[in-house]
Each structure stands twice: as C-alpha cells, then as structure tokens.
Amino acid sequence: MSPQNTSNLWATLCQDLQNERQSVEAAKHHLAADSFVNAARAVFGSRPKRLAEALEIAGDVHQSAGGIEQARDSYVEAVSIAMDLADIPVCVRMLMKLGAVYESLGDLPNAKNVYRHGIKLTQETHYAADLPVLLNNLSDVEKRMGRFTDAERHYQRSIDIATTLHGQSHPEVATLLNNFGVFHLERGDDIRAENLHTQALAIREKVYGATHPEVARSLHNLAVVFQSRGDFQKAKAYYEAALSTFQQYVGPEDRELQTLIKNYRTLPVA
C-alpha cells in the first residue's frame, strides 16, 4: 500500500470518527472511539506510530465523553508504543494526559509517578519543551497530597525553567506564575500571591493587550487576593475590570464568567 493510499485511509478514518461523534449521543462516543482504534489496528498494524496517534485521539474522545477509565487505557497503550519507538515528545505528551486522567480518578500516587516518569524522560533525553508543565502538574499533585514544601519547590522550578526556555515575557511563564500565586493564596500568603499574580498580569497585558480573557483571569485572581485581605474597594475595581473584559468574549452561560460574577457578589455591600 502506497504512502498516499495510507494517508487517504487515515484521513478517512478520522473523518468517519468525527461524523460518528456528531451523529450520536455522548454515551455512544465510546463505541465510536473503539471502532476507530480497531480500524486503525487493522489498517496500520505495521505502523505503530500511527496506531499511537489513533489511541491518543480515542483517549481524547473517551475523556471528553466522561469515559475516564477508557481514556486511561488508551493513553497507557499509547505510552507503551511511544516508548518502544523512543518517540520522546509523543511519550511525554501521553504521560501528561495520563497523569491528568489519574488525577481525575483521584489516583494521586499514580498521577505523581506518571509525572515523575515524564520528568525523568525529559532530563535523560534533554527534551525540555514540556518540562515546565510536567513540574507544574507534579506540583498540583503534591499540593493535593499535602506535600506543600515539595509542591512549592516544583512550582518555582517550573517557572525558572520556563523563563530560561522562553524568556520572561512568555504566556507559559504567566500561567505558571498564576498557578504559583493560587498556591500561595491557598496557603494564606496574600503578599506573595499578589506579587505573582501582578507579574502574570504584566506579562499577559504585554503579550495580549489590555483586553483579553487571559488578562481578565489575572484581574480576577488579584480581586480575590484583595478581597481575602479585606481591601474591598480595590477588589471591587479589579472584579469590575475583569467582568468588563470577560463579557466582551463570552456569553452569560460561560462557567468562568459565572464564577467571576458569583465571587463579585460576595463582596460586602458598601
């Protein structure tokens, strides 16, 4: 079979899956994903890289339809294939997805092991592109497990590495600063939280301009910081700035906007 023919078959399989997802209820998406993988096994059994891609797509479909266990199984097999192929970028990407699935299942020890495996791979192969996100994800797990010292160390390391890779004014750096700010506010350190969210806001304004959903997220987080401190006037100003921006981009049913409005309404009435 020529490369052109297999390419056409792959495109056809992907289109068939998309058509099936659009034409059936969510509960049947799992069957569509399984059929997609079975077809990929039949057509691309001798091309494991393509099969790994099919398993990843199926895992994504399962997860979006609420099939967390099915997603886990798809990602586990995809990781195994990617490891056999020594395809480190694909393997690391699958490990990040697998770790997130374990987190969704509440299986924090396995999530931690998966993220640590990904970190080890990036260090052994000098593939650093995904290392900051892996460290951030590991931090989230450590935090949920009550290992706050380890979580703080990994958060800071993720920021340092992302800054080295991308420079100080990069969206990924802003996201990591944001997450570290949330961590510190949860730990009761509103001063450190304010500093980190202010840094994230400055980067996002530089990258996106003054009105952008990412900017609004930083404004929202700062509003929460000021509210926790009892500075309600400043919190009100930041809530209103965040609302003004978000409402330009999303409708009233948007969950993030609803959370913002709910938080805003918790401010004491002057």
What does this structure look like?
The chain is mainly alpha-helical and 270 residues long. The chain is 80% helix and 0% strand. The protein has 13 helices and no strands. It has helices at 3-23, 29-44, 48-64, 68-85, 88-104, 108-125, 131-144, 148-166, 171-186, 190-208, 213-229, 232-246, 255-264. α6 (108-125) runs antiparallel to α7 (131-144), α9 packs antiparallel against α10 and α10 (190-208) runs antiparallel to α11. The longest helix is centred in the first third of the chain and has 21 residues, at 3-23. It is globular. The chain starts with a helix and ends in a 6-residue tail after the last helix.
Q: Which features does this protein show?
A:
270 residues; mainly alpha; 13 helices
List strands and helices in order, with pairings.
Blueprint: H1 3-23, H2 29-44, H3 48-64, H4 68-85, H5 88-104, H6 108-125, H7 131-144, H8 148-166, H9 171-186, H10 190-208, H11 213-229, H12 232-246, H13 255-264
Helix pairs in contact: 1-2, 2-3, 3-4, 4-5, 5-6, 5-7, 6-7, 7-8, 8-9, 9-10, 10-11, 11-12, 12-13
